[in-house]
Design goal:
Layout: H1 10-22, H2 31-42, H3 45-62, E1 75-76, E2 82-84, E3 88-98, E4 112-123, E5 129-130, H4 134-137, E6 138-140, E7 149-152, E8 161-162, E9 168-177, E10 186-198, E11 206-223
Parallel strand pairs: 1-11, 3-11
Antiparallel strand pairs: 2-3, 3-4, 4-9, 5-8, 6-10, 7-9, 10-11
Length: about 230
């Protein structure tokens, strides 16, 4: 029977079944996914961060790992170029050989010559610094400036202290064996930057330490007997 009471024919019944078959199925209950949401809500947030980090490391390892970045090496400069650090402005100007010259305060034993490295130095710190400390800032392959005597070029007197903001041209004089160096030979010079250390507890005060190569240059030696120094 139909809703109006009229008898339902077989054709009517078939059309009803066709209409019902064409309708989309009713949605299934969401209970099957409810346990997933519940479990996710109980996982600590820190676990997700750890999982993300682990995945990052796996991906990074697949592409060669976490590569370390080496600090930049020393720059290459030329004689006469200024190198500026927090401590000094240094310009290595020239190197030359010289014989004994009592008028210039150069006294040598027989078979010796004087190798002189000329440097323009300016103390950029706010305190006086000993000239001897420049041996940490300037190193020369095969030579030790600790054995050199630093003399002012303007008055040929020994330089003990560099005052702040006052450029001074210095000759570092080294005794060498006659024939050890010749006109045209080269010296490899490295300029080092130092870090300012402030002492605490046991040690107090400040000092410049930890020299690290910052610039390199090559000096050509001139023989003063053949070529006047610049």
């Amino acid at each position: 029977m139909t809703d109006g009471g009229a008898p339902q024919t077989r054709a009517d019944a078939r059309r009803v079944r066709e209409v019902q078959a064409a309708q989309p199925p009713a949605p299934e209950p969401q209970r099957r996914f409810r346990w997933v949401r519940t479990a996710a809500g109980r996982v600590p947030t820190s676990w997700f961060a750890g999982i993300a980090t682990a995945l990052l490391l796996v991906v990074t390892a697949a592409f060669g790992g976490l590569a370390t970045v080496d600090p930049p090496g020393p720059s290459t400069i030329a004689a006469g170029d200024v190198h500026v650090s927090d401590q000094y402005a240094l310009t290595v100007e020239s190197a030359y050989l010289q014989d004994a010259d009592p008028d210039a305060g150069i006294y040598l034993d027989e078979g010796e010559r004087m190798l002189i490295v000329r440097v323009l130095a300016e103390n950029l710190w706010d305190k006086p610094q000993p000239t001897a400390g420049l041996t940490d800032n300037i190193t020369i392959d095969g030579l030790s400036l600790a054995d050199a005597r630093a003399m002012r070029v303007d008055d040929a007197t020994a330089s003990e202290t560099l005052q702040p903001g006052m450029p001074v041209e210095l000759d570092f004089r080294l005794r060498v064996e006659d024939g050890e160096y010749h006109d045209g030979d080269t010296l490899r010079v490295t300029l080092n930057d130092l870090a300012l250390y402030t002492g605490t507890f046991v040690m107090s005060g400040t000092s410049w330490t930890d020299p690290r190569p910052a610039a390199e240059l090559t000096l050509q030696i001139r023989d003063a007997a053949q070529t006047e120094p610049s």
